[in-house]
Amino acid sequence: MAQRMPALAASAPTETHCPYCALQCGMALTAANGTNTVESSTGAGLVTVAPRDFPTNRGGLCQKGWTSASVLTAPGRLTRPLLRPHRAAPLRPVSWDVALGHVAHRLRQIQAAHGRDAIAVFGGGGLTNEKAYALGKFARVALGTSQVDYNGRFCMSSAAAAGIRAFGLDRGLPFPVTDLDGADAVVLVGANVAETMPPFTQHLRRAVDNGGLVVVDPRRTATAEQAALHLRPAPGTDLALALGMLHAAVADGHLDHAYITERTTGFDAAWRVAARWWPERAERVTGVAAADQRAAVRILAQAANAYVLTARGAEQHASGVDTASAWINLALALGLPGRVGSGFGCLTGQGNGQGGREHGQKADQLPGYRRIDDPEARAHVAAVWGVDPENLPGPGRSAYELLDSLGTDGGPRALLVFGSNPVVSAPRAGHVAERLAALDLLVVADVVLSETARAADVVLPVTQWAEEDGTLTNLEGRVLLRRRALDPPPGVRTDLDVLHGLAVRLGQPADRFPTDAETVFEELRRASAGGPADYSGVTWERLRAGEQLHWPVPSPGHPGTPRLFLDRFAHPDGRARFAAVDHRGPAEPPDAEYPLHATTGRVLQHYQSGAQTRRVAELVSAAPESFVEVHPDTAARAGLGDGELARVVSRRGSAVARVRHTPTIRQDTVFLPFHFGDDQRANLVTNPALDPTSRMPEFKVCAVRLEPLAGEPRRRRPSDPSEETA
Amino acid sequence: MSASQVVVVGYGMAGARLAEEVRRRDPEGARVALTVIGAEDHPAYNRVLLSSVLAGSLSPEAVRLHDDGWADRQRVDLRTGTAVRRIDVGSRKLELADGAVLGYDVLVLATGSRAWVPPTDGLLDGTGTPADGVAVFRTLDDCRRILTRARAGAPVAVLGGGLLGLEAARGLAGRGHPVTVIHPVGHLMERQLDAGCGRVLARTLARLGIAVRLNVTAQRYAPGRGLVLSDGGELPAELVVVSAGVRAETGLATAAGLAVDRGVLVDDELRTSDPQVRAIGDCAQHAGTVGGLVQPAWDQAAVLADLLTGADPAARYRGTPVVTRLKARDVDLAALGEVHVDVDEPDAEVLCLQDPARGRYAKLVLRDERVAGAIVLGAPDAAATITQLYDAGTPAPSDRLALLLGRALPSGAPTSPADLPASAVVCRCNTVSKGQLMTAWRAGARGASGLAAATRASTGCGGCAESLQGIADWLARVDPDEEPAVPRPAVS
After folding, report:
1. Matching Pfam families, A to Z (chain A) (predicted)?
2. Residues A358, A306 within the same domain
3. Do B453 and A250 touch (CB under 8 A)?
């Protein structure tokens, strides 16, 4: 790796964006010269990171961003394809030709024996727009399979479904993130931005200073600590809380009647449900004082500029769509959405969580946020792809259902994984690992040997982040260009190269799967033209020139759409829709055997499954291992002292975590971060109960008990990625 | 198998809820054909919210339970404005006031209760209805009558200092009426509260313009003047609102020969003495308890729907833990479980805090580490937490005072950087501890910007900039540069 050369001269920093979350902080990468004291401590070696004054981060970076260059030199970086001839054999390096030839041969064999849907594809919300687009096209055209979905199903699907139901269109923030700078009041529901996207909290400063920040979270998070009012509902009761607050909005006279009449439909039906949730009743279910519900509504209603923002805490439930809808109802009742200076939004998680859900790697979608069951959409996209619409498959299984069906009768026999690590990130992870093991063929394209790659028959080493060009769409629907700052290590290929190589070997014309990202984007523009997420007016040239383009951008001369819905919502009648949703409660309530709620989430130092961040020494040293936040009384009853190792046990499995006494957490609730591998996987315990609409699993609440880990308390065990090298 | 014919007598909170719960389990009506008969002309409404209507925060329209199309959409044969004349359990038929006869497989009584009017001279007219200037507080029509009759600013007397009486009093006081509550015993809400809390509550109400007269009853009502009280005094009132309790509506059941005590007797399957007749809600008496609150009625409706639809033939009603929650603006009161327990009761752990000047009272009764009862007035956060512990039956936190006081606990004074442990994280975005900042200082970094450059503290969200400045100032104070700064070796 020492021979790698920067793509640009050292004197010209590459303006790009952080590899992690949806805030996509602006940063500049410069060839390392050892003069910067901060950078030298990361040991990155190749490039140094400096924050840029970009609207989302304004010169701020969190520890992940500052240390992101280290991921480029992560220990165990894959540089050669690996292949095992059979499951008992170890992975061994092979040439690209052998690897791709083997995969194509096996795919053909399996499809010949079991049909087209015997091959499944699993993508990721971190893939660039170009990769997400090419992956969906590859599945539908080169493989002809309906079985394609992605990890964004575990992330944004509930918010997306609720947004479409209410507004007719889903864009996480339908306004620029900088609009929040003027907010006097912000209600954050299940969002811990101080840890998940720290520089974002700059935009909440005015609300914080005004005493206008309300945080809804069962835990007293770093974000909740900044709030004027912290509402602490029992896990799985956010919907009841939203209903109680809507009731309070009505009873306390905060409704915006003119707005409801002119810009919405369905209020009466929504009220009939909320009428049964007077705040005192919601209090009994949620544990949030009726007085606090009223105070939170008052803060929102009396602010000149107010916003309601949800995130995974509200959405990752078997009733996640309805929960998001209930918060949208509240925002609509107060007249917030579709106006300058107020609104509703959901905070996208993954780096390209927005673009990743628009361009066709989702089981029910085609590029441009089109529906795959819409004949017009099929005809349009088929024409761009040069195929017969009749030959496009229909909707396939959702992410968890897809993983659950692998290797079963009628389920896929082979899986191709790009940009995802479901062995760590999928619910009921132990079962998912078993399903992967039951496949005839597992192919994983990744940068490092992730937990999922370790289980693969073929591992394809691909480029990352600063080694390639591509676009992403950030949390505010702004299309961004991430630029290549240095050459990839010799031997690795881009995902687009991999898809091209496989497609050609599967008999596709060579020009149908271009390897140049800008060329792919040109095709994406045409495919998305006329769709809800219309990128046809976005060009890389405009992005290079620094234009601030929020979709839709329906023509090359169009300035983009920073704020949606100002004149009308995207439903045919132009109105937003209230949804008459009711509380259902967690799919798995606690009982005598599993008396505690477990909830999962993130810590500042790690990202998603940790495949990247667990390989950055500085981050590992700050957050080396999994932990479980437990109220000291609850821990004492389980016989667990602070710092001891516990087993967190559910009906589906158990995870090992170090006990962290946390006096501010509810006594009936424990918290596990989900970034760690092997027996520390939080998802070994999570419940795959699915939302009926979004098919989102219930990551945020399940029933568990705590046990001391049998035997001697173990010493701290930082994850050692080096041992994962083949 | 054809659908079972279920007839529900009563279209109030319980009857309406039962219909919803049945249709939730049997949306197409394949298992249960539903007829619901309501005596009142208007559609079902949410009785719990009547105090909000009285207070003016909700319109009468807003408390309707169902819209006009509900019955058709839900395949419910709904007959409002229809009284039931007679039930014949032998032939499983009931006769309506209009002479129509309905057969049933299962009959559900959800007839509710009616307001009880004390035998005070002049309250009722010759026909047994409230006299002019007198209203009970039970139905939506009662609400309308009170609001029509209450001239702006006119004095109002409320007979009965129970939950509903106080909610009515609060609503009317909020509309600008001088209100006096007449209560026959020694303290307010005596079933739910102990005397100490009753006193604090009375003081709180007084601040809101509500006078409370205890240990008195009304002897006589004189129209246009007011009440003559048992202590001989007179109470001027243009309007008298009677909220002196309710009686279960059991007339039909008694006439049909069903076993009736204070309510229609039912077992855990909500079955009356006739196996084909069930009863739920305020008219039913289960395990010695007659209803009166909505939660038991809704719990019973869910169990009965499980049984009637076959969704869960093992469903049983075992009672509902009662949490009393006063719905009155600016009065936050919750009471639950056993509260008439003295602080020195040997078998229980009892905590009690009285703060009448600030309108706060908190009592906690613990048995076997669990909440057995509580009264919480003026501490909303504590009320919410204690209620959840009571409902879940989980052990109470060892810090009893924190539980009793909720957020009222004083927070610590702002800490000086000197008091922070070295491990305290100052910049969360970049995991920078006070110790690392001290190390950087010793290595020569000066000022907040120097510390930031050396450690990245404050370069994330910037939220710790003030703390960083504080630490920089503190370091400059305790570790000043005597000579032009010569970097010292780092000590860590």
Report:
1. Molybdop_Fe4S4, Molybdopterin, Molydop_binding
2. no
3. no
Classify residue A440: in a domain, yes or no: yes
Structural domain includes residue A612: yes
Judge whether A626 lies within some domain.
yes
* Interface pTM, i.e. ipTM: 0.89
- Judged by CB atoms closer than 8 Å, whether chains meet at A289 and B453 is answered as no
Q: Counting runs of H as helices and runs of E as strands, what totals does chain A give?
A: 25, 29
Mean pLDDT of chain B: 92
> What is the model's pLDDT at position B419?
82
The structure tokens 């609400």 sit at B143
Give the CA-trace dihedral at A381, A383, A384, A388, to 10 degrees.
80
CB A653 within 8 A of CB A663: no
Does A287 sit within 8 Å of B460, measured CB to CB? no
pLDDT at residue A40, rounded to an integer: 36
Least Cα separation, residue A620 to chain B (angstroms): 11
Residue from A68, A226, A283 to probe the interface with B (highest B Cβ count within 10 Å): A283
| B354 DSSP assignment | E
Instruction: Give the pLDDT band of residue B479 (cuts 50, 70, 90).
Output: confident
Mind telling me how many Å the CA of B420 is from chain A's nearest CA? 18
Q: Distance (Å) from the C-alpha of residue A127 to the closest C-alpha of chain B?
A: 25
Least confident of A31-40, A49-58, B252-261, B332-341: A31-40
CATH classification at residue A439: 3.40.50.740
CA distance A33 to A267: 62
Element (H, E) at A135: helix A129-137
CATH code given to domain B134-244: 3.50.50.60
With contacts defined as CB-CB under 8 Å, which chain B residues touch A205?
463
Judge whether B131 is closer than 8 Å to chain A, CB to CB: no
Query: Which residues in chain B are contacts of A275 at CB distance < 8 A?
Result: 46, 49, 62-63, 65
Instruction: Report the CATH number that the domain containing residue A68 is assigned in CATH.
Output: 2.20.25.90
Which of A326, A346, A366 corresponds to the end of one domain?
A346
Average pLDDT over residues A681-691: 97
* Residue range B435-454, pLDDT digits in tens: 999 999 999 999 999 999 99
CB contact under 8 A, A251 and B52: yes
Q: Name residues 241-260 of chain A within 8 A of B (Cβ).
A: 250-253
Distance CA A108, CA A119 (A): 9
Pair (A293, A400) in one structural domain: no
A545-552 contact pairs (CB < 8 A, 24+): A548/A55, A548/A176, A548/A478, A549/A478, A549/A479, A550/A171, A550/A176, A550/A476, A550/A477, A550/A478, A550/A479, A551/A171, A551/A358, A551/A473, A551/A477, A551/A479
Question: Tell me: the pLDDT tens digits for B263-320?
Answer: 999 999 999 999 999 999 999 999 999 988 899 999 999 999 999 999 999 999 999 9
Average pLDDT over residues B82-109: 96
Q: Domain of residue A30: give its range.
A: 14-72
* CATH label of the domain that carries residue A189: 3.40.228.10
pLDDT tier at A721, thresholds 50, 70, 90: very low
Buried b (16+ CB within 10 A) or exposed e, A640-655: beeeebbbbbbebbbb
What's the confidence (pLDDT) of residue A717?
Answer: 47
CATH of the domain spanning B4-114+247-309: 3.50.50.60
- The domain locations on chain B are 4-114+247-309, 134-244, 330-408, 419-478
Q: Indicate the class that CATH gives domain B330-408.
A: alpha beta
Architecture in CATH of B419-478: Orthogonal Bundle (1.10)
A269 reaches B (C-beta below 8 A): yes
**Are A187 and A56 in a shared domain?**
no
- Let me know: does A721 contact A75? Beta carbons within 8 Å: yes
Query: Which residues of chain B are within 8 Å of residue A269 when distances are taken between CB atoms?
Result: 67
Tell me which of A346, A376, A408 is where a domain ends: A346
